Amino acid sequence: MGNGVFVKESKTTRIGMSRMQLLVLGGMLFSMFFGAGNLILPPLLGLQAGADAVPATAGFLIAGIGLPVLGIIAVALVGDIRQLAGRVHPLFASVFIALVYLTIGPFLAIPRTSTTAYEMIKPLVPGGDSFVLAAGFSVVFFAVAFFLALRPGMLSRILGRFSAPALIVLIALVVGSAIFGGLSDVPAARPPYDGNAASEGFLAGYQTMDLLAALCFGIVVASNVKEQGVTDPKKVTGAISVAGIVAGVLMAAVYCGLSFVGLSMAPAMPDAANGAEILAASANMHFGEVGSVIVAAIFLLACLNVCTGLISCCAEYFSEVCPRIPLPAWAGAFAVFSCAVSLVGLDSILAFSAPLLGALYPPAIAMMVMGLAHGACDKFARMWPWVVLSTAATSVVIALRDAFAPDAWIFLDALPGADMGLGWICIAAIAAIAGIVHSSIEKKRA
């Protein structure tokens, strides 16, 4: 090597990769899940959960870390998301995948990058609450993101290499300051965490959208493992599992730390509406105005980098599905649409995301579980449409009720676990039995 320093290669483990390779893969998974937009969720959870922050955070970790890692393993086992969703029905696969890309793209995730960045710089700008300033910021933000999305070259790579490490250092400083500052008072849990804190934390974890992203990009992780010379399916699964543990530990440390920041800020700002507001206030409290400027700048770069990647990724997918429309046109359309959505503000985007993700996550979880057990499920092929479609129908009905008539009672509220937002599990279990019976009848007729 150029500097004359040689590193002895780690011994290969039982799963065909060295410890160093597994650590690198774990870092890759961490970087996939480590988005600036996700960082605004745990502080608000910690602030609102109060004395019940521990069970609420535990539920959040299961949905925000456990499900995505299992999702990547499920995709690795069956091939890719098309093969996974295609077991239900080809039309369902097309619609579901499109909805997933739109959700982790222009519907939610892309607009959230702009609003998160603006929430961080708003306290530093005179008249920051002005709609005109917010709109002007969004226009400039998405214009730059669109420009970079069409030129994924040196500038984008520099942004990515700088923003992620800087964001990690920033989080460590903010969390460390909050820990050393201690807790002056721990308030009682507030809605929605004053009832079933763990299940509400689990539902809050939907807003990371990482399970949806994992189903789409899990094939990339599996391909990376195979490029290291590991081709045996069991070893590929083992490598991803170990790497998932590495990434999960890192993400858990980040999420727990940020939840503590929110808990520590509860006495000072009990009426905070979003996590970006909490992080900005914490940075100002511990580091002053100069620190707040640095925090805002780092978040701005990180959000811009994430936004650029999402626009490029979504445009690439839809240009493949509909090649008559070129990639730049898709990218421009997504940038303009996302800019328009961002004008409603971060609080409105987060409120809108709950029912949409409530509709998408249950069928995604059902497919993930069946993908992990695809060997058994494939023996009863009718299980796939029965379980996933019934789960999807149930979650859509509940999501529509939550969006338009949240106080209305529907028959699905009588299901076990419905009060925790998990009534669809009962429907999935019944559908699984129906799918087995249906498959058995077809086999006998054949």
UniProtKB/TrEMBL annotation:
Q: What is this protein called?
A: Branched-chain amino acid transport system II carrier protein
Q: Name one Pfam family in it.
A: Branch_AA_trans
Q: Where in the cell is it found?
A: Cell membrane
**Keyword Ubl conjugation recorded:** no
Q: Which residues form a coiled coil?
A: none
Mind naming one GO cellular-component term on file for this protein? plasma membrane
Q: What organism does this protein naturally occur in? A: Slackia piriformis
Q: Where the protein is mainly located, per its record?
A: membrane
Transmembrane regions listed in the UniProt entry: 21-41, 53-79, 91-110, 130-150, 162-183, 203-225, 237-261, 293-315, 327-346, 352-372, 384-401, 421-441
Source organism, top-level taxon: Bacteria
State the encoding gene.
brnQ
- Protein's GO biological process: isoleucine transport; L-leucine transport
Q: Which PANTHER family match?
A: BRANCHED-CHAIN AMINO ACID PERMEASE BRNQ, BRANCHED-CHAIN AMINO ACID TRANSPORT SYSTEM 2 CARRIER PROTEIN
Q: Which UniProt keywords apply?
A: Amino-acid transport, Cell membrane, Membrane, Transmembrane, Transmembrane helix, Transport
The family annotation for this protein states: Belongs to the branched chain amino acid transporter family.
Q: Name one GO molecular function term.
A: L-valine transmembrane transporter activity
Membrane topology value: Multi-pass membrane protein
* GTP-binding listed as a keyword: no
InterPro entries in UniProt: Brnchd-chn_aa_trnsp_Livcs
